[in-house]
Amino acid sequence: MTSTQASPDTLSALDRPNSYIGKSVPRPNLDRLLQGRGLYVSDIELPRIAHVVFVRSPHAHAKIKGIDASAAKRMPGVIGVVSGEELATVITPWVGVLSHLKGLKSAPQSAIAIDRVCWQGEAVAAVVASSRAQAEDAAELVSVEYEELDAVTDMRSALDPAISVIHASLGDNLAFERNHEAGAVDQAFAESDEVVEAEFVFGRHTGVTLEPRAVVADWNAAEARLTIYQGTQAPHMVQNIAALHLGLKESQVRVVCKDVGGSFGIKVHIYADEMATYALSKLLRRPVKFVADRVESFNTDIHARDHRCKGKIGVKRDGIITAFEIDDLTGIGPYSMYPRTSAIEANQVVNLVGGPYVTKNYRARARVVFQNKNVMCQYRAVGHPIACSVTEGLVDLAAMKIGVDPVEIRRRNLIADDAYPCASPSGLRFEQLSHHAALTKLVAMMEYDALRAEQASLRAKNIHRGIGIASFIEVTNPSAAFYGVGGAKISSQDGVAVRLDAQGSVICQTSITEQGQGSESLTAQIVGSVLGVSMDRVRVILGDTDNTPYGGGTWASRGAGIGGEAALQATKVLRKNILDVAAAILQSIPGELDIVNNAVVNVADGAPRVELSELARIVYFRPDTLPPGIQPELMATRHFVPREYPFAFTNGVQASWLEVDTDTGFVKLLKHWVVEDCGTIINPQLVDEQIRGGVVQGLGAALFEKCVYDERGQLTNANMADYLVPMAGEMPDIDVGHVISPTMESELGAKGAGEAGTAGAAAAVTNAVNDALRPFGTIVTEIPLTPQVILTALGRI
Amino acid sequence: MKASAFAYARATSVANALELLSVHGERAKVLSGGQSLLPAMNLRLIAPELIVDIGQLAELRGIVVKGGVLTIGALTRHADLLKSPEIATHLPLLKDAVAHIAHPAIRNRGTIGGSLAQADPASELPACMLTLGATIIARGVGGERRIAASEFFAGIYETALTPQELLVAVELPVPPKNSTYFFHEFTRRHGDYAIVGLAALAAVEDGRFDDLCLGYFAVRDRPLLAKSAGKLVDVAVTSAVLSEACSALAEELDPLEDQQATPAMRRHLAKVLLTRCVASLLARRDLCAGGPA
Ligand SMILES: Cc1cc2nc3c(=O)[nH]c(=O)nc-3n(C[C@H](O)[C@H](O)[C@H](O)COP(=O)(O)OP(=O)(O)OC[C@H]3O[C@@H](n4cnc5c(N)ncnc54)[C@H](O)[C@@H]3O)c2cc1C
């Protein structure tokens, strides 16, 4: 590892004896999960619990003429069949807009459709019964009369005046448009030696969490309180929104989030069927459980990425890039998702294109249109894979045009490592990035020159391999600039409370959440290191709005950077408080004492003075023996949010090595490399696995995953046989390297690492496929890169 | 995703199973490994009233070689075929094919009888039965029927079996000692159903085919024993001959359109498979050089 910043001469709060920072310690929750003792929402059983199954629209767009539930209501075990109108008596509709996304519009959305359905899969009625099987039996007997309406499915024609408007009150199908212009774009293109254009097409896909979305809502009429057990990334956001639309105070809603089987951004939104479940519990005055089945998951979990983006790049003969221009179009389904909105991905594309490069000349347009398909919203690495594939695809096309090696053109154009702080052409501010150090490291890791030689010798044997490179930037640690300024009640700050218990162990409550990425582990590592106690003495509590400080949760690669810093600051205070008491007990002064290995020791000679357990005993049970005037505070709370930079940008570069069978169009991934810079690394294994997992999701997008809709708006592959998730058999080895440029915004110095892998993987693969296809004079700019796409490009079929 | 309510009976003998089937007919379904039946029930694509579980009928499980014929009981699991020394010795083609069926968890439960009765056009085993000249043995209350594999498969999920019959075994002639084989399929991911697949058995003498059986799958509504194989037998195979065979093959296919491929792509891939198969069986790399016709 190389560090781009000099290490401080004094020991920091983290760099202490027995520090866990930078160590691959096993996660504290592993035993529990591996022994099957996790607690997922579907495991939760409550007295009088009922199960809800939703009757869903088979049409993409239709009027609801009538619902006849009489037969269903007579079925065994049925507690109620509830329509959208009936549910509207307990829950209000919502509109997914944010004020800082100027002009963004959407229509009111109800928990269950009223009068009209706008996508195949939208709920039209809820059947509540004593078991899921009984509810499914009854649901088959609910008869709904529909009158089919024209469905808007192709985003390219959604804005045609001849095409019907989905929400008449909005006037047209345009949800959002953003235009951006920086520098002197036309002049730059005019002065370029070559200008290259291409259209990049991205398939709609989705997150496919192992555990589907699941909710248990428990309205306790006696307490006038709703407890929501839900696998969510943002418990306080769910609390706020459930309260708002059920007419409750936030204090009347508790959100409990135990174990979560994967989220990837799928579980950071508010879904209509989840809102309906909260409302049903209130209406029926009993606990109600909703667990999406796999078909429902495909039809209702947010989709992402459905973009068509035209791109243009100008380049000089010496390899200097002169300008980027893009025109992005995306279709988001019939509603902007609540509360984060569905304009963020397109907005990110505008923000991020060209981001790693020096040129300041940049023009962008993004248009977001409504369609009668499932809703689209933020999924891991929002916008990044689009921006990265467009940027890096254009850079490679430019390199090809002027005959410069792909590594070389990046060396000539990436922002220099000593040029920071600086800003991107879209105005994003960078504190410290390390594109060149990362590229140099990548080239060494992959033995680039040797690989090129191997590629050349295999060509002679009719074996076509390709190398693809993709530099990227990643948005992490977002401040209030993401959602708060737009009016959403989504906290960008996080809080941590730490306290010493009566036997010298530590209880830590944090507002970040855990869905498998290691939030619990990194929090315990930080607390243990800063306090000087072993990790097994630190118990981390997360995911409970009654029992954690207020905060945002885990999304946008923010848990470690924001929640981790709050943990660090809270623990520093606790440490000081402990040393103050210790000094009083030991008749010493705090500055001469330290905490190491669960005991207070002398700074000077390390001699143990008092065990933390003994100190806690005195404080809690014999405070009478303390000197007068001392009031120990063995609990401390701190909150943190970045203030200086709206986002902590990270950077990195990926490479793919693959083989294209030009007879069959099949692509075999041989190897993948990533070098990334997430600042301080708390747990190298967790970071590497985040990168690898992210890469695999990016490779899924590149080769396999696509929600296939027909022209009538029917999702035709809503099952695990036809929707291809990437599987281990097709994944290459993924080597991960790091450059470390800590952010100075926090003492911890950690930026995020959750989305870097997904950001650049598809771009690297597409570039590698085009590199392999070079002798055939064809270019592919559509993902997933299916055999059908490649054979078509090769003119074989 | 819960199956509709159904009744369940565990058959105590083959006779008992046949009795139940004759009483309940189309309203009943036989349960073997459950790897195709249960997903279909959970998706409510089918809703049988009665499940006749034959899983305990040990007499239907096992592999016997006698007088140049291999008999495989219907309940023999995919995993049993993979591990069987008899299969490895006498029918290595079948072993290769089974390794391409799904994943270990599914192979541990799925059975040969279930796979053949299911008759998925993209399945490996039905095509192997054609290539290997199998006879399928069906039993009803009235006795046994012996059905040639070429007569057995009738369409997508359709066979010559009646709802009252049980597939009890398959018989496979042991191929001659000098025979060679080729198995390959194109799938997007390991374990997926094939986009196009080929199970071939050949007798090669002096660089020529004395005999060649090409069992294709996923090229139409049922497996296909390609007649165009005849164009390659008893001739010196040149690029031109191969190219002609490829064209004839394309004529024989009637590929379906689905998520994975258009008919044109399936035709193309079937030709690639033929080219690679012939090049491999004759050990003639040169035949691959120009790609398929
Ligand atoms: C994820 C997944 C992937 C798969 N991939 C593949 C693949 O790549 N290739 C492939 O070939 N298969 C694949 N399969 C299917 C698998 O091979 C099944 O084992 C096989 O199709 C059915 O065998 P079974 O014993 O499970 O039959 P069951 O599911 O029990 O029965 C299937 C059908 O056959 C009938 N039946 C079963 N036994 C008999 C009998 N003795 N007589 C009369 N009727 C009978 C049943 O009534 C039912 O209609 C896959 C399955 C899964 C779940």
From TrEMBL, chain A:
Protein's UniProt name: Xanthine dehydrogenase family protein
Residue span, Aldehyde oxidase/xanthine dehydrogenase a/b hammerhead domain: 35-150
Organism from which the protein derives: Bradyrhizobium archetypum
Organism superkingdom: Bacteria
Stored Gene3D superfamilies: Aldehyde oxidase/xanthine dehydrogenase, a/b hammerhead, Aldehyde oxidase/xanthine dehydrogenase, molybdopterin binding domain
GO molecular function annotations of the record: iron ion binding; oxidoreductase activity
Coiled coil ranges: none
Pfam family, one: Ald_Xan_dh_C
Polar residues: compositionally biased ranges: 1-10
Keyword Oxidoreductase: yes
Region named Disordered: 1-20
Keywords, alphabetical: Molybdenum, Oxidoreductase
Organismal lineage: Bacteria, Pseudomonadati, Pseudomonadota, Alphaproteobacteria, Hyphomicrobiales
PANTHER family in the cross-refs: ALDEHYDE OXIDASE 1-RELATED, XANTHINE DEHYDROGENASE
Keyword Oxidoreductase recorded: yes
InterPro entries, A to Z: Ald_Oxase/Xan_DH_a/b, Ald_Oxase/Xan_DH_a/b_sf, Ald_Oxase/xanthine_DH-like, AldOxase/xan_DH_MoCoBD1, AldOxase/xan_DH_MoCoBD2, AldOxase/xan_DH_Mopterin-bd_sf
Automatic annotation (TrEMBL), chain B:
GO molecular function, one term: oxidoreductase activity
SMART domains named among the record's database cross-references: CO_deh_flav_C
Database matches in InterPro entries: CO_DH_flav_C, CO_DH_flav_C_dom_sf, Diverse_Substr_Oxidored, FAD-bd_PCMH, FAD-bd_PCMH-like_sf, FAD-bd_PCMH_sub1, FAD-bd_PCMH_sub2, Mopterin_DH_FAD-bd
SUPFAM superfamilies, per the entry: CO dehydrogenase flavoprotein C-terminal domain-like, FAD-binding/transporter-associated domain-like
Lineage of the organism: Bacteria, Pseudomonadati, Pseudomonadota, Alphaproteobacteria, Hyphomicrobiales
Top-rank lineage group of the source organism: Bacteria
Ranges of residues in domain FAD-binding PCMH-type: 1-177
Pfam family, one: CO_deh_flav_C
Protein name (Swiss-Prot/TrEMBL): Xanthine dehydrogenase family protein subunit M
Species, as recorded: Bradyrhizobium archetypum
Record keyword Glycoprotein present: no
Key words of the record: FAD, Flavoprotein, Oxidoreductase
